[in-house]
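Page header: ASSEMBLY MODEL / four components / 1488 residues total.
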Amino acid sequence: MDRIGVALIGTGFMGKCHAMAYGAVKAVFGDVPVVDRAVLCDVVAAHTAKCAADWGFAKSTTDWRSLLSDPSIQLISITSPNGLHREMAVAALEAGKHVWCEKPMALTIADAEAMAAAAANAKGQATALGYGYLRNPALQFARKLIAEGAIGEVFDFRGSVDEDYMADPALPWSWRLTRKDAGLGTLGDLTVHLISLAQELMGNISSLSAMVDVVHKQRPAAGGKMAEVENDDIAHALVRFASGARGVLSSSRIAHGRKNGLKIEVHGSKGMLWLDNERMNELNLYVAEGPPEQRGFRRILSGPYHAAYGKLCPAPGHGLGFNELKVIEAAELLYAITGRKSESVNFERGIGIEKVIHAFATSAETHRWVEV
Amino acid sequence: MDRIGVALIGTGFMGKCHAMAYGAVKAVFGDVPVVDRAVLCDVVAAHTAKCAADWGFAKSTTDWRSLLSDPSIQLISITSPNGLHREMAVAALEAGKHVWCEKPMALTIADAEAMAAAAANAKGQATALGYGYLRNPALQFARKLIAEGAIGEVFDFRGSVDEDYMADPALPWSWRLTRKDAGLGTLGDLTVHLISLAQELMGNISSLSAMVDVVHKQRPAAGGKMAEVENDDIAHALVRFASGARGVLSSSRIAHGRKNGLKIEVHGSKGMLWLDNERMNELNLYVAEGPPEQRGFRRILSGPYHAAYGKLCPAPGHGLGFNELKVIEAAELLYAITGRKSESVNFERGIGIEKVIHAFATSAETHRWVEV
Amino acid sequence: MDRIGVALIGTGFMGKCHAMAYGAVKAVFGDVPVVDRAVLCDVVAAHTAKCAADWGFAKSTTDWRSLLSDPSIQLISITSPNGLHREMAVAALEAGKHVWCEKPMALTIADAEAMAAAAANAKGQATALGYGYLRNPALQFARKLIAEGAIGEVFDFRGSVDEDYMADPALPWSWRLTRKDAGLGTLGDLTVHLISLAQELMGNISSLSAMVDVVHKQRPAAGGKMAEVENDDIAHALVRFASGARGVLSSSRIAHGRKNGLKIEVHGSKGMLWLDNERMNELNLYVAEGPPEQRGFRRILSGPYHAAYGKLCPAPGHGLGFNELKVIEAAELLYAITGRKSESVNFERGIGIEKVIHAFATSAETHRWVEV
Amino acid sequence: MDRIGVALIGTGFMGKCHAMAYGAVKAVFGDVPVVDRAVLCDVVAAHTAKCAADWGFAKSTTDWRSLLSDPSIQLISITSPNGLHREMAVAALEAGKHVWCEKPMALTIADAEAMAAAAANAKGQATALGYGYLRNPALQFARKLIAEGAIGEVFDFRGSVDEDYMADPALPWSWRLTRKDAGLGTLGDLTVHLISLAQELMGNISSLSAMVDVVHKQRPAAGGKMAEVENDDIAHALVRFASGARGVLSSSRIAHGRKNGLKIEVHGSKGMLWLDNERMNELNLYVAEGPPEQRGFRRILSGPYHAAYGKLCPAPGHGLGFNELKVIEAAELLYAITGRKSESVNFERGIGIEKVIHAFATSAETHRWVEV
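Prediction written out in full:
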């Protein structure tokens, strides 16, 4: 496959991110098809047309269903609100398209499972979910170190994912705070990322005990009234991995000062490593070797010897940005589409993440440990 | 009271620490009695006599009971193995002595309660437990900021306490790894410190769900055999505070790379603060004020405007050390003894900490949330 | 101008970087012309053709002079070895093309001045030099803070630029280590970046006293012999700015552990700020305001409120990468070309940087302070 | 020698610091004489008497000359204003006393040389200067690593020493800002520390080019007038070491945000190390060994395996404070007095530091490189 035609649904933060990734991936990686940006789709015609022109799409539309029958399109990116993911993704798969859908998969586990079923029934199309942080070369280097036994047997995982986009209690109420239209809160927005990293490094989570809370229970709505916040601000859990290892996960969308506060620690019998997404080009590694007087955490700056870093930059320590992780994500999806070895997070694997956040909710409601 | 006579039981790490604190506290604080170092007590006569000479004690003994009737002694420091705390502390209190006992209080909650009862029945003597990290000026500044509302209503606490003194699985078995002789493991050694900080800043913990594990289940013993490790390597919990706030606590004595890894974060409605004991002279504060473009965590170096720092050093940023926290601890105890306002952690308050670690154990065994 | 045709000379590190920037700039910024990647030029035909295909260039050539008369080209990027910059840039300008040339300008000050003269004589074409670090939103925020007086009158500048690409004394000799073919060493590769930042924030340097050394004087060459290193490993200087302020600059290409170690500090009468390129998304700001007990350096993560950050990412703290600075650099050049307000570093301003590094060399040779 | 009688002149910051060191050194080190705190001397009788009582001195006086003939005194600490050092130190040495004098030695190089001459002519007494930062175990570990070749041949030194105690331009004028009464400014207060570290690690400085400035030229004096500041706010230099290595030193007493900002970097052919006194329990080490993908700066926390740390604390990472460096300093002096191997900085070595700061002044005045 030399070329691939893509359509993109959505022109928001993630929409632009996918567009930039499609524009860059061939130049960066080389060994992928040329990406033809065919159609951009969103609800406001004029804005969509302007974005299409700027982002290099051949045309624009407000009718996402028109993409399904368009033979110039082989791959559809879905960056619409989460409540639309199921309908769009299932339709796209049934129409024979490859699908790249942003996370979380859907508002309910039933919807997510319907998506996974559609993927399982598809005729060989690839699916991918937007877990870009997994593509961070520093994270992949952590995974490699663990796989090679550099820190021994891993037995404890500590992770947190915190942002402050809802931290101000005076921020207004919106539909994003309802269960019906937006589903879960922090769990769907943030916790899923943490789980994706935890399972990447430690294997599957098998059981957990969680605490899920709305802290700022009401927010100002139209007309000077206060309206109920329905979805979670905070979600913490103790977890047990299938391997027998254990861990602690915490997450909050109301954590003042955290902008991309995704941090993990992996404890092993021979060492430890940790990573903080706010300094995403650094991996910190401690190995219990050599004279004790010389031991310490090593701050390793990402470089061309780490995963895909070298495709983007030959100079170590110069640093990748958030958007560039999406370029790597696009490459992995194109590898999957073209039948190559791929690290892409498909819908089947995505279900494994969705099940965990829904287990959080169940555990918190029942005040008990639950199996995932 | 112009002078006070003290005896010290124990010549190990904590024993020397108490000795140094007694030697310094009058010079540092001025407004406390002169401390007469009367008797040093430990089991090996020659070593104890040598330490007494070096540490400025007038004499030494191997008979701790002889201290009880010695009229030159008003205060006894107990830094012996934890299994001896109850007997010594109760006897000292019954003999009319003030008591400064290292943490944890005892091997069992029953023993700790017996100590608290002895303190309650005492004729006005003061008791103190060795929670020195509470005396860190940076921590006390955090407490002040919270009390003043600088970060608004506090609703989330994250804390961990990790060291690596047992991290190497090849470290030999010893009596310290038995329940009978040493009681709890990480919970008694480390977790108690974390709880002391959590309760200092957030109020009491009311319920929790915990996970307590022995990870390295056997260690090499004499004769080339492996022996069972009975007490906990790792202790994690979700906690609920009486205030309604929540939190996550994690702790490990097998965390490679952590040497004094006691870290806390307090999340509030207007800001956040965090502290890491490995950089104990720094408090990090984020306040959601001013233009967003200028917001960030402020690294505040301890200085003479923070709690007792100025007694030890008039120059900001020059830094206190671990031992100096013990000097402040000694001063607070002397304030309690002389009837002044004191922050000393007495046995009654200590019981509040012991109950929490025993609730960890119960929760882990029953796999349920438990009330403290 | 709706569209602009570009040619790119060079397929190395900087060549790919320019190509990625051309591919992204319209999508990222919107308010610039569409960039038509017309011709890619380098010396090896097959490799150049492959790169052209991957990077989205319509065709490729090995004859850079053919670009001069190509009417589809309005802008030429020059990323060839420094010794070729003069000839190519002057020819391009004489042919009526806009020019984006990598730094340093040339091997000698005479060559750089010839380039500046060609730019001055051009018929309105824009020129730009590859000082991408100036485009870092954190750096531009520093500049804005200084301009607004946030840290008062600035009087002291500390800067260093260190990498370790030549740190191993056993690295082989090459033509890059000769004066004839490569010109200056660290001064041309690294120090120019530091000077660009210093002059951006403090105004022009007027005099200096420098120390410029070859430390690893010989390196292994072909045939098992050692060959002389002719250009500088290390270049340090005391500087005086035209404003009367002062500063210290240090630079090294043999600084083990530094991968992109460009650090600056600006001291003012009301505060201080500092920045480290290895953590390029952070600006550290101290303002002497508020109660002393609450003062500290604020770690401000870059966000959409900082310069061009928001064009690339709406979410604060998610972080830009090195390559994205080049996208901003491209936008600024396109602004200059289209007659808009631009921050682009043109050849005239570039000469101001070249003069400083040549003053380093003169001062070091004469062992005296020199005027720039 | 089992016991030694000491007198202490001065009750300020350094006076209390010496008193605490004398009170602790026997307990901490054991292998030194018992210190009898005989006499405390300062100008205000009541305050001195109060301090003597608190600090454990047997008596107090306001007549420093009375110490000279007191047979109970073998060692005199001089922490009086710098202008008094010469007279007191020379008299003490002539009276046969050992002397511990705070830095800098004196207001002029002539005075410092007179002190060194008195030391040279003494009958075996020891002298010591208050360069406590040299006693930091992290710094001594750096020295050990360098001596063992861990970072290869060292060729570049970067250092800065910055505080902000005079940073506010509105701080009032005082005698401390005059040459006559206070001598040099930043050079005497701060730069001497940096030089002490530079020479400890790199050997002697042989020549330098300096820039020494008063930035805030006038400060508010009594009566609403402005008065001239005579001594230096800022002192920067390029230096050449006798070994052929080079370096850059910067220093400022008007550096907002720096509280104890003494930082050094040592660059070697096989690695690099750096240290920041605001985090004095950490040494950062990079060694160019092992696979490049695993290289990074190691943050090594001080522990009992580093120099004298273990005398103060057996637990790594628990951290020493500023005051404890003075305890180690006292021990080294007592080792010198008792004829043991000692790292104490005596007057002869102190002259080597004084010569450098005076060379700074000469270079800045003449605008030339000068030999030290």
